[in-house]
Write a structure and sequence with these properties.
This protein has seven helices and ten strands. It has 218 residues and is of the alpha/beta class. The strands form three sheets. The protein has a six-stranded mixed β-sheet with strand order 3-5-4-8-9-10, with helices on one face. A two-stranded antiparallel ribbon has the order 1-2. It has a two-stranded antiparallel sheet with strand order 6-7. Strand 4, helix 1 and strand 5 form a beta-alpha-beta unit.
Length: 218
């Protein structure tokens, strides 16, 4: 797909159509907006590793383990931290472009995708997927725009960002309506003896977010 420009933000993205898309000409499909497209595919060259997402989806489709979906893979290799951070981090003196990027995603990318493809446009069939800073943004997007995104998968999310500002927001704010669904995980088991923060994968931050969600009925 050609990149789109919205509000001064240029966003590049790929669209992966499900196997039955060309055969089922009247069918509409749920949509997953997956962040960090530069690392999603088996042929990606991201130095931090790749997801092999299209291969995993093919296996799940063959097993009939999940419903077929359209994947909109959004590139974040340019200004990644700025775009994916919901607010400024005073300690790192960085970030804060998340609200503008969210507007570009909703009013720019999603508007184009819904116009060009047979998507299910309801919030219940529109989700987000991201890891690390992408997981942070996915949570933020679903929490603040639950009218658009009904669910978000947040893998090893950087909930430490901005002195755990997003966790504090969840603790202090009212439950969003309609309430989005969240999948939250951490890629490494918690080990109190491990001295390397990367090996611990920041487990205590996702755990704190999970606890912050409990009073909201999760």
């Amino acid at each position: 797909m050609e990149p789109i420009d919205h509000g001064g933000i240029r966003v590049a993205f790929d669209v992966l159509l499900p196997p039955s898309y060309d055969e089922q000409e009247s069918k509409r499909y749920p949509v997953v907006y997956a962040l960090d497209a530069q690392a999603l595919w088996s042929f990606s060259k991201d130095p931090f590793g790749v997801w092999d997402l299209e291969l995993t989806l093919d296996r799940l489709f063959e097993l009939d383990a999940i419903e077929e979906v359209i994947v909109v893979a959004v590139y974040t290799d340019v200004d990644r931290v700025q775009r994916l951070s919901p607010f400024h981090d005073p300690k790192l003196a960085a970030g804060g472009g998340g609200p503008n990027f969210l507007n570009a995603l909703v009013d720019g990318v999603k508007a184009v995708v819904d116009k060009r493809f047979r998507t299910c446009t309801s919030r219940s069939e529109t989700g987000l997927l991201g890891s690390s800073m992408g997981g942070l943004f996915a949570f933020y997007a679903a929490w603040t725009r639950p009218d658009v995104f009904g669910k978000a998968a947040c893998l090893s999310s950087s909930f430490w960002w901005g002195q755990r500002g997003l966790i504090k927001a969840v603790q202090s704010q009212k439950t969003p309506y309609p309430r989005p669904a969240f999948y939250i995980d951490s890629g490494a088991a918690f080990d109190p003896e491990e001295k390397n923060p990367s090996a611990r994968d920041g487990f205590h931050h996702p755990r704190s977010m999970a606890r912050a969600l409990l009073p909201h009925g999760y």
